[in-house]
Amino acid sequence: MSLNQLIEDCKVDNTKAQGELYKLFSSKLFSVCLKYSRNHTEAQDNLQDAFLTIFKKIEQYKNKGSFEGWLKRITINTVLQRYRNEKVFDIINENHVEDVELEVNEEDISIDYLLQIIQDLPDRYRLVFNLYVLDGYSHKEIANMLGVNIGTSKSNLARARQILKQTIEEYKTVKHSQSL
């Protein structure tokens, strides 16, 4: 069955087609959820919520642009809605934090460790970092998605980079001292 036929069948609430669509895209969308969630369990919950939203809104997909991109946008927005509802961004009014360069040498630090420390960032910093650095959204887009102002987005990104840089430097110092 073609993807277009699968989409059309999902539009008429065909549960078998919905199951096939889930099988086809759940692992990719779970990766998106994991990137924006606090942990594995929350990512699973977010994936389920995203698919409920996808099936509810699938008739809005008009076969224009990438279907996978459409799914990813809905998934990200579903996760971000949870954070907006939790008011993660309400109490944040940080002064502009100096932006830092964050360079990672793959010989010094594993990708798994890097992903873990990104995952460990406070919610507001992790979300902005992922949206800006990993998914390429602009600060204006992030501000709209999160319901914050552009300055808050920039400040949260700078703070995320500072925390990551500090964590990486501490890790490298410990690793270096262990190798002596």
From TrEMBL:
GO BP terms: DNA-templated transcription initiation
GO MF, one annotated term: sigma factor activity
One matching Pfam family: Sigma70_r2
Domain of life of the source: Bacteria
RNA polymerase sigma-70 region domain residues: 21-87
Signal peptide stretch: none
Keywords: Sigma factor, Transcription, Transcription regulation
Gene3D superfamilies: 1.10.1740.10, Winged helix-like DNA-binding domain superfamily/Winged helix DNA-binding domain
SUPFAM superfamilies tied to this protein: Sigma2 domain of RNA polymerase sigma factors, Sigma3 and sigma4 domains of RNA polymerase sigma factors
InterPro entries: RNA_pol_sigma-70-like, RNA_pol_sigma-70_dom, RNA_pol_sigma70_r2, RNA_pol_sigma70_r4_t2, RNA_pol_sigma_r2, RNA_pol_sigma_r3/r4-like, WH-like_DNA-bd_sf
Domain RNA polymerase sigma factor 70 region 4 type, residue spans: 112-162
Family stated for the protein in its record: Belongs to the sigma-70 factor family. ECF subfamily.
NCBIfam families named among the record's database cross-references: sigma70-ECF (TIGR02937)
Protein name listed in UniProt: RNA polymerase subunit sigma-70
